Amino acid sequence: MIRFLLERPIAVIMSFLALMVFSVIVFRLLPISLLPPIDVPQIVVKVTYPNASPESIEQNVLQQIREGLITLNGLEEMESKAGSEIGTVRLTFDYGTKMELAYIDVNEKIDRLTNSLPNDLPRPEVIRINTSDIPVARVQVIPKADVDQVEVSLLAENVLKKRIEQLPGVSLVDINGKRERIISVQPNDAALAALGMSQQELIEAIKSGNAELPGISVKDGQFRYYLRLATRVDTPRDIESLPVRSPNGAIVPLGRVATAKYETQEMLGYHLFGMNEGLVITVHKQASAKMNELIPELKKSLELFRVDYPQVDFEITQDQSSLLNAAISNLQTSLLFGGIFAFGILFLFIKDYRIPLIMGISLPSSLLISFLIFYFFDISINIISLSGLALGIGMLIDNAIIVLDNITRKREAGIPLFEACVQGSNEVMGALISSVLTTLAVFVPLVFLSGISGALFYDQAVAVAAILSVSLLVAFVLLPLLYWLIFRVGKRDSLKGEPKAFLKVLNVYEKGFHWVFARKKLALLGFFMIIPLGLGLSILLETEGLPEIEKPDATLEIDWNEPISAGQNRDRLVGLIQEIKDYTQAEADIGVRQFLLFDGDNSIQKSLLYLLFPSEIEKETQLELLRKRIEEEYPLTTFVLGDAPNAFDQLFSSNMPYYEVRWKDLKAKKPIEAAKMKPWLDDFPTENWEPGPGLQQESSVVFTLLADKLALYQIPVQNVQDQLSRLFGVFTITDIRRFGEITPIRLQENQDRFEDLLRTTRVYASDSTSYLLREFVDYRYADQYKYVTADRGGIFQSALVTSENPHGQLEDFIQWGADKNLAVETKGQYFRDQENIIQLIGILGISVLLLYFILAAQFESFVQPLIVVFTLPLGIGGAFLVLLICGATLNVMSAIGLVVMLGIMVNDAILKIDTINQLKIEFAENERITGGLLLEKAIREAGKIRLKPILMTSITTILALIPIIFSSGLGADLQRPLVFAVIGGLTIGTVTALYFVPLMYWFFDTVVGKKEKL
């Protein structure tokens, strides 16, 4: 095939040029994003029910929603959590479920449930979770001094949001910290009493004045007019001019008995930037958009905003594109230094500028054509796919060096140029195809990991497969063709003789070879002793998800665990920020967050503070001071203070506890009372536990209606409940609606203490006699459960176990529950981790089998593939040694480095074995040599032939990666463990390929090979 293609150079060149043109077009169309667009198989249903207790939300809302959603297709788990005024139902589906259809299905079922839910309940929100929910940036909108916050909120909602949404690539704009204007009506109780009126007459007058007659029209001859009531109110003055009629017939303007005015609605949450109140706009990108184009466009828009709206300051924070830029920068660095060092090493070992020139043409061509495969597999350019390309570049350089070196060797043997190109490519074709297949056999099965890990590996596997497939195409078609075209116009003797540098290396290698083969058994024993020692180093290495990267930012998640208002929450947080020095940036989301996509716990008592410092040194110092301040001044507070999560952390973070013991009272089907629960928890089988959400308590006031007195004085219960809701609730009389803008009219909330209000407020009996409300309402302070948690089986309470081996106490937990007539079950990330480990071991076993089958087919031997398998532990041990010396850990990046290193090591070993096999046949046919002499000569000669490509591949790869070690920044921090693993593995792996592979070949051929029957 190679001969056929080389005989048609113009057709091949035109075909490659056409591929390059299409690749350039496709590259411009590919989306660029931080992470692949992964559908996380979760949907959250959020419920907001003002003035409702956790028990009320659970009984009246969440229970009905759970029962209505239990029949969803693919539903794996369903959990709900009811808090004060807020409730959530989290639905987890089997991975692979079509989340678009599931989202539609959930919304349809919610619509059907509407009639069974309370009438005053707003429609539950349905939130679908995926990687595009992670905002690419946050825009801070801070009003300047003396600027109305409500006006800025309207500006953000009606103008800024829409202008940002119009930017190409923006999918959603979310806002937190908005303020809304209301009209408050403050009754004059003395004036009402003097006229014999109650608040009810006031309320009815306002409702009547804001009434509409939709759809009513009158006919006037041939014309028809639609009616509009002229009494409709628009302003506080309109409200005060409304007539109010007393029971005795007196009519007075409403302004005589009440005051109406504009006010800002009480805030349940705030947003701070520094210590200034403002708003934050989060920007989310479309899956098909280019992040590196979206962020500059957003910055341009902010420049225009600063000019158009000088009353507001704007700032971009938490720009997630820095991670993507780091990945792109690393790939560019890898290509640049890889090309420079490859050129230098090739010139040192081959001494001809034309061969590096061929490499310089083929490498960018391979990379560009790979993006064509991205397009057909619907893969975006993201951190995961770019890391796959970085994996493949090492193999790509390896393949190119091997083919060019083999063609050069054929020319040096006196074969004509054309035949040298054909034979040199054909000779290594089988070995290179096998090496690519073995690399894919190790890597591609990881796609079948369940969950997000498998989805992430899909992008990486496609990227690796793309660049390796293209590298084979380039190695067997473009490289021989370029070699033939470039060298046919040069001098014939330009490649005669080896460079002095290589001759010196060859001399050292041969001395080592003679020493090792003079002591075969001892050397082999030494290698086999090194294998367990190298692998045993893994015990000394720490393991983590992502490598430690320099994170100058931090977050404080805080729950005050006290019944404070949002304003008090804000004041406390401002006090904490004032204590911190040397911070570059601070922003906080306080209390209830207004984000549409927020799926966490919305609580007035909670806050999230983000801090950016100039460096990690200042960060550690200030965080320690902050920790001490919180512990000393707010002992009831629970908080988490640590590194700010990046996009990877947010994607892989789980709200699932590590190990949770749940129990249910199947008889009562309600939370067990705290007084009863406390002695039971004293007997809990382990001391290392924390209360789950269903056990957490908060202080509350419990009102009790005195039914006997209500009956005695003939006061309807409804009257007392209405009066309580007006006193302590958000009582909306009506809404003024103007073209989408809604202004509520509400009774003004009295700021007095509730005991004083009960003593001064009157309630009316059926005969219009009034009594003090305190006579019919009793109250007491009590600690109540903060949340009510439930799953498919009903309400549960739980303990979060923190001991080292929690599952070892499973029988104790079950026995503890049985003694108290409770049904006990265990849940948590612990079980998922166990499943993932078992699954990973199975997948890796399949990978090793595939690798063995491919090599057995390549070598036509059942034994020789074992030589390749035995080389892998030596490389892994070398990688572990360098990781340990450099203080690195076992993490995702070092694991990728291991795969890169093993791919190159396998490649070298396969080529060495393949060359020995070919030489054995050649020597047997031409020189009539047999037995041990034939074997040793073939091994020695194969070592000389493959020495140059093995050294060039290892040295170019190592030298290309060394600059990353001495670099700084986020990208270098991420890549450094990968570099250590590759350098350590290849350093040991080069020695392995040079000496261990020949020894193992000799061992299997002399000891096992004689018994093998083909």
TrEMBL record:
Which Pfam families does the UniProt entry name for this protein? ACR_tran (PF00873)
Tagged with keyword Lyase: no
Q: Is the keyword Disulfide bond in the record?
A: no
Q: Which residues cross the membrane?
A: 12-30, 331-350, 357-377, 383-407, 428-449, 461-486, 522-541, 837-855, 862-885, 891-911, 950-972, 978-1004
Q: Which UniProt keywords apply?
A: Membrane, Transmembrane, Transmembrane helix
GO CC terms in record:
plasma membrane
- What would be an example GO MF term here? xenobiotic transmembrane transporter activity
- InterPro entries, A to Z: AcrB_DN_DC_subdom (IPR027463), Acrflvin-R (IPR001036)
Protein name from the UniProt record: Multidrug efflux pump subunit AcrB
Species assigned in the record: Algoriphagus boritolerans DSM 17298 = JCM 18970
